[in-house]
UniProtKB/TrEMBL annotation:
Source organism of this protein record: Caerostris darwini
Name recorded for this polypeptide: DnaJ homolog subfamily B member 12
Pfam families, per database record: DUF1977 (PF09320)
Topology in membrane: Single-pass membrane protein
Claim: Ligase is one of the keywords in the record: no
Length: 221
């Protein structure tokens, strides 16, 4: 407790301009004197003026709990400014980090409100259940029950979109099939496996066959 009192008095000297001036003029002994005494031209200084400073608990709270002590006359008033500022900073930081996610969610909700469902699907689902075929290339596609009523005026445009999308899908599948077949042939040659090479060359590429048929139909029109 003696050490804590000494630390408290030292802190008081550092934070109180009057006490710091007295310490600079008269040194430590003037602060430790318990009785008043005359010095330097008859002026009196009292040790009691150094009493009533921060306790050990207040010092601990100041250094470890972010508490600030401000002197008002002979009393010390406590403020938790550090924790308050830190809490406000954490709140602002959390909000700033959440803003991009909130923006994405808002845009997604708005886009879903204004974007209507596609007129067709290349695969059958519970929503797109009714099958139709394009006039030129006989490509199958699936629509809703009210398709003709809602899209009858733009039927030709929709069927062109169906055929373009279908050809792109088949072309992509054809590329994958050919790439796989060529890799198998290369591997067989690398290991000099005649049997494996024969099987690789016999691999079918059905998407490429479909694509060739589509090109034939397209050229007829």
């Amino acid at each position: 407790m003696v050490e804590s009192a000494a630390i408290g008095n030292a802190f008081a000297v550092l934070t109180d301009p009057v006490k710091r001036k007295r310490y600079d003029q008269f040194g430590l002994e003037a602060m430790q004197t318990t009785e008043n005494y005359p010095a330097h031209g008859g002026r009196y200084y009292y040790a009691s003026s150094f009493e009533g400073d921060l306790s050990a608990e207040e010092l601990f709270n100041m250094f470890f709990h972010g508490t600030t002590y401000v002197r008002r006359g002979t009393q010390w008033q406590r403020f938790h400014t550090t924790q308050t500022h830190a809490h406000e900073a954490d709140t602002r930081s959390t909000l700033m980090q959440a803003l991009p996610l909130l923006l994405i969610i808002s845009l997604s909700v708005l886009s879903s409100m204004f974007v209507s469902d596609p007129a067709y699907s290349l695969t059958r689902t519970s929503k797109y259940y009714y099958e139709r075929r394009t006039t030129n290339l006989d490509v199958p596609y699936f629509v809703k029950e009210n398709f003709v009523r809602n899209h009858g005026d733009s039927l030709q445009r929709i069927e062109r979109q169906v055929e373009d999308e279908y050809i792109l899908t088949v072309r992509t599948s054809c590329f994958r099939e050919r790439n796989y077949k060529e890799n198998m042939i290369w591997r067989a040659k690398h290991f000099k496996d005649i049997s494996l090479e024969t099987k690789a060359r016999e691999l079918r590429t059905p998407s490429c066959d479909t694509l060739n048929e589509l090109y034939k139909l397209y050229n007829r029109h």
